[in-house]
Structure formats: structure tokens, C-alpha cells
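sanity check both lines:
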Amino acid sequence: MSHSDLTAKSLRRPLDQQRLAARLEGTRWLAAEVFDSIGSTNEEAAKNAIPGRVLVASHQTSGRGRLARPWVAPPHASVAISVVLPLPVDSAQWGWAPLLVGIVVRRALAPRAPQVGMKWPNDLLARAEDDDEWRKLVGILCQTSVGPDGPVLVVGVGINTDVRLEERPVDTATSLRMLGQPVDDPEDLVADVLDGLAEVEQWLHAAPAALEQHKMAYRRECLTIGLAVRVETPEGNLEGIAHAIDDAGRLVVRHAAGDTALAVGDVVHVRPGAGSGSGWR
């Protein structure tokens, strides 16, 4: 499909709740709550945080990512998915939640956007075949909350589906439309992501040995590892080489003063560095 065809053809429409319900029948999820527009699916999910709850919207007016950054997209040009999961008993696994979510969302996107990579801790980046630049396609936000029966994990996933070039909030963003992969089946995309999130729930509650294979998979595929980075944290910025992901899901940055493990932070100015095994060159 040519660029002119993509520009001319509008794929923007509300999500079809009945079609999504049919796709989710028999799964672990409660009936999906579908919104044409909402402030934030994560905030709404946290108000009644029952495990298995699903909220989906094609427009957020107050969407947020990490470090309180806004998530901006025109109406019906993205999908926002939030689910409520039981919080793992082992707090050492909490830091792995957004990383594991990245694995399954990347897998759901693979038939639609083959060149998608994971950036620690909460973004999926993509690039077109004729573009050397990786740009943000997906944002992930995992937050702890308290439900009727105790602590829970609220998992949010935002995917740019139909954002056009001139609508990007920043030039580091992209969408499936811009990648030449317009989405005419958003309900199927949402269902594929939810299938993956059900697996994440199982992984987070599995024995440590069973979870290890998924941790290793993330380490192999994470674009950030081996790159020179600047990590923005609430305490300030840290520059160095992204050296590893430790057992708690923290990014280990090697710098002049030694190694520092970061549990939170936004990786910026990611660029090729020596020793990268990620394939991002």
C-alpha cells in the first residue's frame, strides 16, 4: 500500500465491543469495558481494581507514561489497554512486570510490524525498512494498587495505530500506519495483547526457575543493552553504558565510578555503543 493510499484511507473508528467480547470469550478476562474516550484507563482500572478487569479505549484525554509524561494521540488513532492482575507475592519479581509485558506485546505486534524492539523499561520501538531510526510505538505502564481483596498490579499498554506523520507529538514517535501497516482489526490486536498479558500473569506467579527463561529472553532481545545511554531519574541523570539487566529487572549502567543498578528511569539519547548484542546498530 502506497503512502498516498495510507493518507487517503481513514481507518479511525470506535472499537467494536461485541466483536471484542466474542474474541475474549472463554479467556481469563472479565467482560471488557470499552470506552470511546476516557481520561486514563489505568486510573479508571485502579478505582475498582478487581483481578481480571479489562478496560480498553481508542482515545485517552489524560493518559500518562512513566515519570508522569503525557501519552498523546488523536481520537481513534491509538488503543489503550489496562488490566488488573494479582500482585506477585515475591516483590523481587515486581520490577520484571513491564519487561515481561514488553515481550508479549512485541509478539502480538510481530505479524503487523516485524521490526519492533524493546527499550528498557517500558517502551517498544519500531522502524520502517527504509529508516535507520527507531521510534516509539508502544508505551507500557505498570502500577501497584489496592483492590477489594488486597494489593494488585494495574498494567497499561498504549499502542499508536493510526497516528499520521504530521500528528506526532514528538519526532521520536511512530505508529503502525506510519510503518505502512494500517490496522483495520483493532479488536484482534487488542485480543492478541490480552492473550499475552494472561501469560504474563502466569509467568509472574511461576516458580523462579520457570520465570528464568523469560528473563533470559528479555535480556537477549532488549535493544538497550550494550548502548551508551543517559538515564533520567527522579534523583538526576546518569550517563554510561547499559551493561545488563539484573535479577530484579533493574538496568545496570556502567560508568566512570562503577556500576549502578536503576529500578526506575527513562532512557534517553540511546545510541549505538560497543559490545551490543541487541542487533541495534
The first strand starts at residue 33 and ends at 35. Confidence is low (pLDDT under 50) at residues 1-8, 273-281. The radius of gyration is 18 Å.
